[in-house]
Amino acid sequence: MTDRARIEAALDAAAAALEPFTPGAIASRLKQGDDPVTAADLAVNAALHRELVRAGEGWLSEETVDDTDRVSRSRVWVVDPLDGTREFIAGIPEWCVSVALVVDGVPVAGGVLNPATGRRIVGSLDEGVTLDGEPAGCTAADQIEGALVLASRSEVKRGEWNRFFATPIAVRNMGSVAYKLACVGAGLADATWTLVPKHEWDVAAGAAIVVAGGGRVSGPEGEHVTFNRTHPKLTGFVATAPALEAPVRKLLDEMRNG
Question: Are 32 and 66 in contact, with CB atoms under 8 Å apart?
Answer without folding.
Answer: no
